[in-house]
Design goal:
Chain A has about 600 residues and is an alpha/beta fold. Chain A is built from 25 helices and 15 strands. In chain A, strand 3 and strand 4 form a beta hairpin. The mean pLDDT of chain B is about 95. Classes of the chains: A alpha/beta (about 600), B alpha+beta (about 290). One iron/sulfur cluster binds next to helix 4 and helix 5 of chain B.
Chain lengths: ~600, ~290
């Protein structure tokens, strides 16, 4: 029996899309299939993206061709493609409109927009336009939002949008600026309470000329890796991606790892509903991320870095690509950055529509060309991460703090470099256990939604006041994986320790403001849908538990609650929180639990 | 190197690197497992084997967590029992477990998992299940994924842990995740070589011999009348062991002992399915 019987042929169009990523096909005699260790498997997601972008979907013929070229089994490739919401395995209309139905967009009529668009376009019928409901698109400060994919053409975001605007943008032939509501021209909505640190460059064109030199990198090169590590330690910086882990411990862990091949990864998957601060940084201050990553490469000895950006951020992708090539040209990235005796290269990777790929180990699997299923920990990434090698993974905002800590002189002249560092200045801001500022994503029922930089420890009520929210507004803090804040907790200081003491979490920094008159029952239903949709499906507590939770909440919404139903919800909460593999399942009951505690949901 | 750990208050010393599951079993403590198999590496996805570990925020899977000096473990606390009961309840309410291994059915009773709690009133959709049509695509074996708990064992056995054919993978995600060939292609058109190793590891009867399937569907499957004969596969010189299960002198299922040093429970198409000759009368005419 032939191991690789040819089942279908790729078309010329598909072959060209594939060659764009894999190069021209070299003749191979009966390729051997390997699961682990197929050396080019990491190109799987990029090649699947090329097919989606250029052909519209991933066909059997294309899978056959990729299988032969990458030495990955057809069933495996199908398993990977079908994992991701944005990699269809069936032919698609030429245009797909993804309309956000989460949180802020839900409050501003996202669901109505979907219904309306379906009616006007015929959804996949003659109009050749498909309408998809989408989880949060990370554009909440300009809700409602849509993300549009046009096969063989372009991908772009529309914000503050309406049916009319969407349809008009599709008529436009100039794909690069489809419409005034295109995200390229959206209001930035960046504010700060106190002096802006992380946001100080927002609004300045994201060009190297305006960023200036990589002063922090030069300081690092001059003073050595240990100096950087000591400064990070002194700064007490903790991760901004959700888990709040001390950043210096990770950096040192990788720097002192036994294996010599190491990686640096920037987590720019930002898919927690209500979170958009990383997008603001990626689009408007890409160089601080790049500089921080080069410093990380210098300190950890990694020669390669990846930025994993969610696919729904095409503008961020474009700006990062642009910034990387500017940095390479300027000699600040690549071989011997800033004259240092090392090399560090950055590769941009696109997600493909999966919230779970923000979980660090799922993200590694995704880059490696596997299904985005989290791995079990231990081992932790610093020991065995990307490609099984010691890996430093940090959130975009965490990285953005690093140049700040190493070099407080904002656009400092050469002479001041390396004299003093910002660690001391950094710890002046914040609380006992939470140093520095934090970016909060305020969205929903308030006058001035946007990204707010505020010192850690700022009372929630101050933030709400700045954003023009009413006092009676409800707040969901930390996103779908977060918790509702009860009315008497509104003055909670936004620090890691204070929120934790109040059974809350800062999480991703999402502050979702909800009109007290809003349909809470609908929102809770949506939250339970979100987790059931986004579960990777690997472990039983989450795969089945999220579905049972959704059903139970639906029963309570229809029939009212009773003690049996609530006992069931408690049991589901216990098994998901206690026995799930990763943070998705472990937090899937959090919002519902807090809704019960705060009597939003009885 | 040995490590001293405490299990349910009793100190014991185990060699470092053994799993908590083996450590517990050495102490005679019974812990349920579904996705774990002695001839496959742990995937720790079912979570029925979880135990409580001091210092850990969540429960930990005993099948994959390695023992380390000073660990303090509770294997049957209320918290542990609650999670196990719920895992079993979640499975029993969404998957047809009626043909599962006896152990699994036993744990459902032992932990008092009550799947009926998840049913809905008349005015709502019934609770989701993984029910789907049986795949009868050839004369050798049947795939009935309405019975699949997604333990990943068949994918491992078809892949690098035994067969290296990679005919099947997990496709889709979340509750829709299912074991599948590429594009759900029928098995004869897929890369499958019919080694049957996936059948050998399936704990729920989702993958069974067609002979067994037909008898069961006809209501004629009768384990009391069945005999298991251990023998060596006659086809080649490797020496794989076979366990032939027969009913009324007909071979209804062929397995291989997972602890056998040659075959580790895995066979090829000949040993697994090539048993037709056993009942063929010698051709006396020629
Ligand atoms: C379901 C899930 C989704 C996550 N999504 C993100 C994300 O989009 N961005 C992010 O930085 N971290 C995310 N995380 C946290 C990461 O696993 C990881 O902790 C983080 O990237 C580490 O960076 P930090 O130390 O700088 O915070 C997610 C975690 C889980 C469990
Ligand atoms: S908790 Fe959910 S998302 Fe995480 S591994 Fe389990 S099934 Fe996947
Ligand atoms: S019979 Fe063998 S080759 Fe076919 S799916 Fe099962 S394990 Fe894979
Ligand atoms: S078919 Fe059987 S072996 Fe395969 S995942 Fe399902 S239950 Fe496990
Ligand atoms: S037996 Fe340990 S998780 Fe399944």
């Amino acid at each position: 029996m032939e191991l690789l019987s040819r089942t279908a042929q790729a078309t010329a169009e598909e072959l060209s899309a594939i060659a764009g990523v894999l190069g021209e096909r070299t003749e191979q005699s009966s390729p051997r299939l390997k699961r682990r260790g197929a050396s080019r498997r990491t190109l799987l997601l990029p090649v699947l993206h090329a097919l989606r972008d250029e052909v519209g979907y991933i066909s059997e013929g294309a899978v056959q061709e990729i299988s032969e070229q990458l030495e990955v089994a057809r069933a495996d490739i199908y398993g990977v493609a079908s994992f991701y919401a944005l990699l269809p395995t069936e032919p698609q209309p030429s245009t797909t409109v993804h309309v956000c139905v989460d949180m802020a967009c839900r409050f501003t009529g996202g669901q109505r927009l979907v219904d309306d668009l379906r009616e006007t376009t015929g959804d996949g019928g003659e109009g050749d336009i498909a309408i998809h409901e989408s989880p949060c698109l990370g554009q909440c400060e300009n809700a409602p939002a849509a993300y549009i994919e046009r096969t063989g053409d372009s991908r772009f975001s529309l914000t503050g949008t309406t049916t009319k605007k969407i349809l008009e943008s599709l008529k436009s032939t100039d794909a690069s600026s489809p419409d005034a509501s295109d995200a390229t021209n959206q209001p930035l909505r960046a504010y700060s309470i106190g002096e802006a640190q992380l946001l100080r460059r927002i609004g300045i064109p994201p060009k190297l000329a305006s960023y200036g030199d990589f002063y922090a990198l030069r300081a690092a090169l001059e003073n050595g890796p240990e100096w950087v590590l000591e400064n990070l330690e002194a700064s007490q910086l903790r991760g901004r991606g959700g888990a709040a882990f001390p950043t210096a411990i990770k950096w040192r862990g990788v720097a002192e790892a036994r294996e010599s091949v190491r990686y640096v990864v920037a987590n720019a998957d930002e898919s927690e509903p209500g979170t958009f601060k990383d997008r603001l940084l990626l689009e408007n201050d890409p160089f601080s991320l790049i500089e921080a990553m080069v410093i990380a490469g210098f300190v950890t000895g990694a020669q390669k870095g990846y930025i994993y950006v969610r696919d729904e951020y095409p503008l961020a992708c474009a700006r990062i690509e642009q910034a990387c090539s500017e940095a390479v040209t300027a000699g600040l990235l690549g071989n011997q950055p800033a004259g240092g005796d090392f090399s560090f290269h950055i590769e941009l990777r696109r997600g493909a529509g999966a919230y779970i790929c923000g979980e660090e180990t799922a993200l590694f699997n995704s880059i490696e060309g596997y299904r985005g299923e989290p791995r079990s920990k231990p081992p932790f990434p610093t020991e065995s991460g990307l490609f099984g090698k010691p890996t430093l993974v940090n959130n975009v905002e965490t990285f953005a703090n690093v140049p700040l800590i190493l070099n407080p002189k904002k656009t400092g002249a050469e002479e001041t470099v390396a004299q003093e560092t910002g660690a001391e200045e950094f710890i002046q801001v914040g609380t006992e256990q939470s140093k520095g500022t934090r970016l909060f994503c305020v969205s929903g029922a308030c006058e001035y939604p946007g990204t707010y930089e505020a010192p850690l420890g700022t009372p929630l009520s101050d933030l709400l006041e700045e954003a023009g929210a009413t006092e009676s507004a409800r707040v969901l803090l930390g996103g779908a994986a977060g918790a509702f804040v009860s009315q008497d907790q509104h003055d909670v200081p936004l620090s890691f320790e204070d929120t934790s003491a109040a059974s809350l979490t800062l999480g991703s920094g999402a502050v979702i403001v909800i009109d007290p008159k809003a349909d809470m029952s609908d929102l809770l239903g949506r939250i339970t849908d979100f987790f059931a949709d986004e579960s990777c499906g690997q472990c039983v507590p989450c795969r089945v538990g999220t579905v049972r939770q959704k059903e139970s909440v639906a029963r309570i919404r229809t029939n009212g609650s009773d003690p049996t139903e609530l006992a069931l919800l408690d049991d589901l909460d216990a098994v998901m929180t206690d026995a799930s593999i990763c943070g998705l399942g472990q937090t899937a009951a959090s919002a519902i639990r807090s809704a019960r505690h705060t009597k939003i949901f009885k | 190197m040995t490590a001293t750990i405490k299990i349910n208050g009793e100190e014991c010393s185990v060699s470092e690197g053994t799993t908590l599951l083996s450590a517990c079993r050495e102490q005679g403590i019974d812990i349920p497992t579904i996705c774990n198999a002695e001839n496959l590496s742990p995937v720790n996805t079912c979570r029925v084997c979880v135990v409580e570990m001091e210092g850990s925020r969540t429960l930990v899977p005993s099948c994959s967590r390695q023992a380390a000096e000073g660990m303090v473990i509770a294997t049957h606390s209320d918290r542990v029992r609650r999670s196990r009961r719920m895992v079993l309840e979640l499975l029993a309410s969404s998957v047809d477990l009626s043909r599962s291994e006896a152990d699994l059915l036993g744990w459902i009773d032992e932990y008092e998992a009550d799947s009926s709690r998840h049913s809905s009133g008349d005015n709502l959709d019934p609770p989701a299940t993984v029910a789907q049509p049986v795949k009868l695509q050839d004369s050798l074996y049947v795939r009935d994924y309405s019975r699949c708990v997604l333990c990943y064992k068949c994918v491992q056995a078809c892949g690098e842990e035994a067969q290296n054919t990679f005919a099947i993978s997990v496709a889709d995600r979340g509750f829709a995740a299912t074991i599948s060939t590429e594009f759900d292609t029928a098995l004869p058109d897929s890369a499958c070589v019919y080694c049957g190793n996936c059948i050998g590891v399936c704990p729920t009867g989702a993958l069974i011999f067609t002979t067994e399937f037909e008898l069961r569907e006809a209501g004629e499957w009768n384990e009391e009348q069945q005999k298991v004969t251990r023998t060596v596969c006659p086809y080649c010189g490797v020496g794989c062991n076979l366990e032939l299960r027969t009913q009324d002198e007909t071979i209804v299922r062929v397995t291989s002992p997972s602890d056998h040093e040659v075959s580790h429970g895995h066979l090829c198409i000949k040993g697994r399915f090539g048993t037709g000759f056993v009942k063929t009368e010698p051709d006396t005419e020629s």
